[in-house]
Amino acid sequence: MLDSPKPQAKSAPERPQKKRMNPDAREAHIVAEAVLFFAEHGFEGKTRDLAKRIGITQPLLYRYFPSKESLIERVYQEVYVQRWNPAWEDLITDRRAPLPDRLCRFYKEYSRAVYDYVWVRMFVYSGLKGVDINDRYLRGIKEKVLRPVCGELRHANGLPTPGAVPIGEQELELAWGLHGSFFYRAIRRYIYNLTTTADSDTAIENEVRVFLSGVGPVQRQLVEAQDKQDS
Amino acid sequence: MLDSPKPQAKSAPERPQKKRMNPDAREAHIVAEAVLFFAEHGFEGKTRDLAKRIGITQPLLYRYFPSKESLIERVYQEVYVQRWNPAWEDLITDRRAPLPDRLCRFYKEYSRAVYDYVWVRMFVYSGLKGVDINDRYLRGIKEKVLRPVCGELRHANGLPTPGAVPIGEQELELAWGLHGSFFYRAIRRYIYNLTTTADSDTAIENEVRVFLSGVGPVQRQLVEAQDKQDS
DNA sequence: CTCATTATTTATCATTTGATTATTAAATAT
DNA sequence: ATATTTAATAATCAAATGATAAATAATGAG
Questions:
Q1: Does residue A1 carry a pLDDT above 70?
Q2: pLDDT of residue A8
Q3: What's the average model confidence in pLDDT over A77-88?
Q4: Distances (CA, A) of A157 to A7, A160, B101, B179, B202
Q5: Partner-chain contact B173 A209, CB within 8 Å
Q6: Of A135, A177, A191, the CB nearest to B181
Q7: What does chain A look like in DSSP terms, one character per residue?
């Protein structure tokens, strides 16, 4: 049979990609494409479709990963590792800078580092499937972001420290609300595919301003109620 | 959204359910269970699993629906029809009541009517799969809720009407932020399965209060910038 | 060049899954 | 009771899908 030239994998215009890659590079290539593929189609995406996207045959995947599940595990690690910047925890509570500046800077950096196409979609896919990663992550957000934010709000509004009067559920809910307004923008963009023309950094500045200039009296009321309840 | 816990897979059928049902009742039964089933597992849920949940054999589904797709179509109609209350459009703009009351009432009623386990999960599943329903729905929210809200905010803060100075993207983004903080609570509950002990109505009241007491100056600034840009 | 190594492909297996057909049995009519 | 109708099941098909085994061909060593 004649050896007809193999049809090129759909989109590799720059380098004609030699047929045989060194194993490390091939594995990296597979993982990189798998990240995008599973972010787009979810973890029930078919291995044959993934292989076609990569430009290899489906069985080759199994030379690099013993099972689809192990590949997914690898993809998880690739996406969810090292996105959190530990410096953020100090940033939020470093009172040398004004609170509005701290919150704006944190949420700008956080949104830029975390809320991209891959992270958001995988996070939501995982949530729907009930993977534990979401629960753990949001518990971290609660302790490392929302509670500290509530504490800083207390300080800015001349209210008792969380040590004196514990942070109540409704108080925390205020911080969840701010957080959610930012996450929701990512959802609109990456899940609902709505084109958001508004600049994200500017929107963050505006929403933080609205929040900070309005939260004082409401928080005071909640803290007083909480205090009364305790005593 | 308030007190609708995750529906349990039917475990203890009260009535031993006679084997042979009348066709209308059987169809209704299938649809009702399919709604819960697809909300939980997504539309790639297997027909055999669905049948097992219903307590029938898988081929029986095909006596009532010609294909899985047609059943899904039916489920969509069941979930997405008649949840929007047309009276809400008037509620938001009826200036006989104070704006805080209107916003609180609207979002309480809206959250209760729309944000339940089934609606939220199907909406997100559909978004991930790129079904057009989301785009259309959110376009409706924008025109029927967010723009009117912006208009009422203009009025409450003594700013020019949207007719005089069109509503800008960043201004609209403020309203998206408020909206998102409520939707995000539903996401936390139904997608991430976090137990939210805080009462939903109270949280809405608090967040509306924070928003309304802080939004004035920010909106004024945005409107003035928008006005300058136009002239 | 010749040959060994191994990255990659072709062919294929065993389940799964949406869907169809043939059979069974429950309800109703006579 | 007997017969008729049809809701429901059992058996099965064909395509899809995760995974494996055998065959092929690109690369480097001697």
A1: no
A2: 35
A3: 96
A4: 67, 9, 26, 26, 21
A5: no
A6: A177
A7: ---PPPPPPTT--SS---S---HHHHHHHHHHHHHHHHHHH-TT--HHHHHHHHTS-HHHHHHH-SSHHHHHHHHHHHHHSS-S-THHHHHHH-TTS-HHHHHHHHHHHHHHHH-SHHHHHHHHHHHHHT-THHHHHHHHHIIIIIHHHHHHHHHHTT---TTTSPPPHHHHHHHHHHHHHHHHHHHHHHTS-----S-HHHHHHHHHHHHHHHHHHHHHHHHHHHHHHH-
* Interface contact flag, A180 B185, Cβ < 8 Å: yes
Q: Residue B195's pLDDT band (boundaries 50, 70, 90)?
A: confident
* Residue (of A32, A187, A193) closest to A125 by Cα position: A187
Residues on chain B touching A203 (C-beta within 8 angstroms) = 170, 173, 177
Residue B157 in tokens = 């803060």
CA angle B147, B153, B158 (to 5 degrees): 130
For B203, the closest of A173, A188, A214 (CB atoms) is: A173
* Chain A residues lying within 8 Å of B209, measured CB to CB: 214, 217-218
Cross-chain residue pair A213–B211, CB shorter than 8 Å: no
pLDDT of B209 > 80? The answer is yes
Domain boundaries, chain B: 23-79, 82-230
Q: Specify the CATH superfamily of domain B23-79.
A: Homeodomain-like (1.10.10.60)
Q: Tens digit of pLDDT for each residue in A183-221?
A: 999 999 999 999 878 999 999 999 999 999 999 999 999
